[in-house]
Amino acid sequence: MLSSQQQIISFVADRLQSKTPVWLCTIIKTWGSSPRPIGAMMACTMKGELVGSISGGCIEEDFLEQLRDGTLKQQFEAERKPFIVRYGETEAEQARLKLPCGGQLHVLVEFIEATEVNVGVFTDLSSALENHTKISRVLDLSSGAIFADDQSNENAVTLDDNRIIHSLSPMYRLLLLGAGDVARYVAEMALALEYDVMLCDPRPQYLDNWDVEGVETTPRLPDDVVREGFSNPYSGIIALAHDPRVDDMALMEALKTNAFYVGAMGSERTSAARRERLPELGLSGDEIDNLRAPIGLQIESKTPAEIAISIMAEVTAVRHGIG
Q1: Is 197 found in the same domain as 153?
Q2: How far apart are alpha carbons 173 and 196 in whole angstroms?
Q3: Residues 197 and 301 reside in one and the same domain
Q4: 106, 140, 168: which is the final residue of a domain?
Q5: Residue 212's pLDDT band (boundaries 50, 70, 90)?
Q6: The pTM is what?
Q7: In what order do the strands lie in the sheet with 22-31?
Q8: Contact assessment for residue 247 and residue 178, using Cβ atoms and an 8 Å cutoff
Q9: How far apart are CA 319 and CA 282, in angstroms?
C-alpha cells in the first residue's frame, strides 16, 4: 500500500520511464472551504489515465474535458512553462464545479515531458519516499525545470523567488504489538488513514488466528522489529498485547527512538505499574516521559471498535502536532 503522494510520484516516475509525458496538477493555494488541502496532487496522461485528486471529482472532470478538447495543450504550447488555473473565483463557477460555499483553488498545472532529467528527478523522489525520507520537489516557474531537494520544509507548498517548493512526506508506518480484537480494529482504521501497518506478536497461539488484509504480520522479537524498521519520525509504535513480555520488550526500544508516537494500552493502574518497571529495562526518566499511557482520547470507549477509534484519533492528533 502507498500513500496518495507516494502513489502519484511513483505513477509519474513509471510513466516517464516508459517515455509517456504526464500532466501534473498541484493545489498551491486555497480560500474558504476547500475539498482538498494545499499540496494535494493529481496526475494524468494524454490517454486519460488518472491518479490522485484535487477535489471531490468536479475539477477532475473539468480538467479531463480540457484535456480532450486540447485547451490545456494549447495553453502549454503557447507559454512553454507551467501555469496556474484559478477555480471558483465566481459564484457561477463555484456552482458549476460544486465547490463548497466560498471555496477557491489555485492549481499549478505542469506538462512533464519524458526527458532523461525528469526521469531521474522523479525516480529520486519515489526512492526517497519509499525509504521513508522526507524530500521536496522544486519547480522553476519560469522554465519548468524540476529538481529534488532533501531539505525539509514545514509548509506543504512554498513560493520562493519564482520557485515553488513542494514538500513531500513519506508514508507513515504503525507497528502494532499484540494480536487481538483491538489491534484488528486499529489496523483497519490505520489502513483507511493511509498508514503502512505491521503487527508483531511472538506468541504463535495469538498470531496464528489473526489476519487483516493489507497488514504484514511477524513473529519476531518486538525490540528487533522496532530497531530495524520503526525508529524514525514517520513511525508509531502501539502496544496492545496486555502482556509485558511483548509490550515492554517493544517499548524499551521504541522509547529510545524519535518515533512520532509511542503508546501502550491499559488502565491508569496498569500504566503506573508499567512506568515503575521500565527503569529496570535501562530507560531514563526522560525517555519514559515520552510514553503515552493510557492511550486514546477520553470518549468513554468500551468496545474494541470504540477503543480503536479513540486510539487512532489520538495518533492523528499527535501526527498533526496537537496534544
Answers
A1: no
A2: 5
A3: yes
A4: 168
A5: very high
A6: 0.75
A7: 50-52, 41-44, 22-31, 104-112, 83-87
A8: yes
A9: 27
Q: Which three cell numbers stand for residue 323?
A: 496534544
Q: What is the pLDDT of residues 246-297, one digit of tens each?
A: 999 999 999 999 999 999 999 999 999 999 999 999 999 999 999 999 999 9
Domain end, chosen from 118, 144, 168, is at 168
Q: If you average pLDDT over residues 130-148, what whole number do you get?
A: 90
What's the pLDDT band for 59 if we cut at 50, 70, 90? confident
Name residue 242's beta-bridge partners: none
Are residue 122 and residue 180 in the same domain, yes or no? no
Give the DSSP letter string of 235-292: EEEEE-SS-HHHHHHHHHHHTTS--SEEEE---HHHHHHHHHHGGGGT--HHHHTT-B
Residue 95's CB is within 10 A of a number of other CB atoms, namely: 11
Q: What are 30's three cell numbers?
A: 486555497
Q: What is the pLDDT of residue 70?
A: 75
- Distance from CA of residue 236 to its chain's centroid? 13
Contact 100, 32 (CB under 8 A): yes
Write down how long the chain is. 323
pLDDT at 32: 65
Judge whether 253 and 230 are in contact, CB under 8 Å: no
User: What are the pLDDT digits (tens) for 118-131?
Assistant: 999 999 999 998 88
Helical axes 244-254 vs 268-277, angle rounded to 10°:
60
